[in-house]
Design a protein that fits this description.
With 158 residues, this protein is α+β, with helices and mostly antiparallel strands. 57% of the residues lie in helices and 18% in strands. Strands 1-2-3-4-5 form a 5-stranded antiparallel sheet.
């Protein structure tokens, strides 16, 4: 069964059965974790903790593929959400956009939350949203309109 975010959710009965069948292993792992946390005081401690937790997860039947699929789906959902926020900011902050050009043909459009950098005539721009680089995006109609509006507002202000 999968939840809304793509994270695999197992039935409570499956967990209860696992706990009943493997209670001794779980107690031993918890004791080892307790000892590791109290005795080892370096980065080795956290490496051992991670190894023990991953060992328990693998032993419980959760595969690394399931974990990586869950992480990938959460990452994709997060990236999509941030891209949507950036596009909304583009629309909302168009009137505050400042357009600047360089002698080499590159341009930059800045707003309080966005930075678009590109080269005139190219079909991709580099997008930074709230200081986080979102990579290169294809120039869509929304981005073209945003750049055009920034050029217009910049020349009107001069």
């Amino acid at each position: 069964m999968q939840s809304r975010w793509g994270v695999i959710v197992m039935d409570v009965q499956v967990w209860m059965d696992f706990l009943k069948q493997n209670w001794l292993i779980i107690i031993i792992a918890l004791v080892v974790l307790f000892v590791v946390l109290n005795v080892v005081k370096t980065m080795v401690k956290w490496a051992l903790v991670i190894i023990i937790v991953v060992g328990l997860l693998v032993y419980s039947g959760v595969s690394l593929d399931q974990i990586s699929n869950s992480v990938a789906s959460v990452k994709d959902a997060t990236v999509d959400t941030v891209k949507k926020e950036a596009m909304n900011a583009m629309i909302k902050e168009a009137q505050d956009a400042k357009y600047t050009t360089s002698s080499d043909g590159t341009f930059a459009v800045t707003t309080p939350n966005l930075l678009l950098e590109g080269q005139a005539g190219k079909d991709k721009v580099k997008v930074t949203f709230r200081g986080v680089n979102l990579g290169e995006w294809q120039v869509t109609d929304t981005i073209k309109t945003f750049i055009t509006d920034a050029k217009k507002s910049d020349t009107v202000g001069k």
